Amino acid sequence: MGIVNATPDSFSDGGRFLDPEAALAHARRLIAEGAEILDVGAESTRPGAEPVEADVEIQRLVPLITAIRAESEVPISVDTMKPAVAGAAVAAGASIWNDVTALRHAADSLQIAAELGCEVVLMHMQGQPRTMQAEPHYDDVVAEVTAFLAERAEAAMAAGVARERIWLDPGIGFGKHMLRHNLPLMAGLDRIVALGFPVLLGASRKAFIGALSGGADADHRLGGSIAAALAGASAGVAAVRVHDVAETIQALNVQAAIAQASDAGARSL
Ligand code: HH2
Question: Which of 16, 80, 139, 197 is 20 to 30 Å apart from 146, CA to CA?
Fold first, then answer.
């Protein structure tokens, strides 16, 4: 899943793709590099980000989704917590609602998701984007995130979202201490995968990678981002949400080829 941020303030690429032409050019590039899903967003969820009104999000997203849809059949997911924005995006051609609040932001989020009939990504977040990094606390982060995701999947199905349309996401960096919470979650991804839903992992360029590499800024976290994507693939996640599509695919292909050779080697013993 390649990330297209039409925002002025996303943590790693804010402002670069606010211009619709620049966002479309970026989307084209990610498709050419092999992205199998594009995730388009118009409201940053980074800690401390200012909220964006629904009509502003719609103005930024609908022309972009329409333009991508006019030239490609790549599935488009819309990164928004607002039902009105998800509805407008689906009408324009998006097929996945990626909601960092796991359909908790509005009272009617669950019902609208069921009515839209789209796929949904239910992501774990402790607290709200503006304050979530203040004092995140867990007794057992893997158990708590896994239980939360199982509960949200149940709630979505009870509201009428079909089981096969549900994705789960541990929400790396969302109300999690940089290393104390994100690392155990990365190490425990297989327990979320075991819930039986496709899992999406978004670790690309996130702060814990900077913390593990002497404070490298977001533009200098490619190596760590690839390591995280490979760890996710090993744990069985269905998709990785990344900024650097070509480099990530190359790494995943090499990992898969080695795994295949290792299986073949084991068979020939
Ligand atoms: N991370 C970000 C945004 N949306 N959605 C899901 N499902 N999972 C994630 O991990 C996730 C997400 C943050 O990354 P980015 O879009 O680059 O920045 P911003 O939130 O500032 O737009």
Answer: 80
Phi, psi of 76 (to 5 degrees): -115, 130
Q: Which two tokens stand for residue 68?
A: 């991508």
Type of residue found at 25: A
Instruction: Tell me the residue range of the domain where 240 lies.
Output: 2-268
**Secondary structure (H, E, C), 11-43:** CCCCCCCCCHHHHHHHHHHHHHHCCCCEEEECC
> Is residue 16 annotated as part of the catalytic site, yes or no?
no
Tens digits of residue pLDDT in 178-215: 999 999 999 999 999 999 999 999 999 999 999 999 99
pLDDT tens for residues 125-163?
Answer: 998 887 888 889 999 999 999 999 999 999 999 999 999
Q: Give me the CATH number covering residue 236.
A: 3.20.20.20
- Gap between the Cα atoms of 66 and 252, Å rounded: 30
* Ligand 1 site, residue 240, Cβ cutoff 6 A: no
Retrieve residue 119's tokens: 């796929």
Tens-digit pLDDT profile for residues 18-28:
688 899 999 99
Q: Domain total for the chain?
A: 1
**pLDDT of 15 above 90:** no
